[in-house]
Amino acid sequence: MNGFTITGQIIGFIAMALLVLSFQFKDNKKLFAMQIASCFLFVFHYLFIGLGGDSAAYSGMAQNAVGLAFRVVIILGDRFKFLRSTVVMSVIAAVMAILAIFTASTDPVALLPVIGNFICLGAMWTRDPGVIRIGQLACVSPCWLAFNIFTFSIAGIMIESFNIISIVVYYIRMHFSARRARLTQVQDECEGSDDGCAEKETGSAGSDNE
Questions:
Q1: Which is nearest to 13 in space by CA: 30, 36, 38, 31?
Q2: What confidence tens digit (pLDDT) does each residue in 147-204 have?
Q3: Residue 207 belongs to a domain
Q4: Structural domain that includes position 71
């Protein structure tokens, strides 16, 4: 590794920490704000890797720059309703496609972040944290993970792996929180009365195992 590549990896590690933390927030504004900061740093991460000799990394740089822009648009859309229009989304998608033409050249690997970004744009436009997490888990992270493996972006490989783990951990936490809430509800209903408590508790336990 040369100096450019090492610098890029260091920046990537910082961006990685911010993006992993973003998926632990239920609030959309906090989630988007953390992702904006991460995207900003990932632009420079891929820029330095590209300067280090891997031209395919410029595709990652370009797509992160667009990702930064459309996350800002989504946040501002809460104040300026016209930014929520399909016209704005179409313009952003067109910019992604144009940048892909200039950065992907003949290398199919460079198309992976483009595919990931199109799915990410659609998921984030819904402003639904659940849809965003599913899109990230099912398509966005796998595309970027493959891209990072081919371009040997160590920080990128780690962030997408941690992204997947982080989302899975979130759903596990939500599952056990819901289970505890159901058990607490049953106990509250049974407090002070023995009638039907055994049946309710058994039924609740049975539903958790289904």
A1: 38
A2: 999 998 998 898 888 888 989 998 898 888 877 777 777 676 676 555 555 555 455 4
A3: no
A4: 3-182
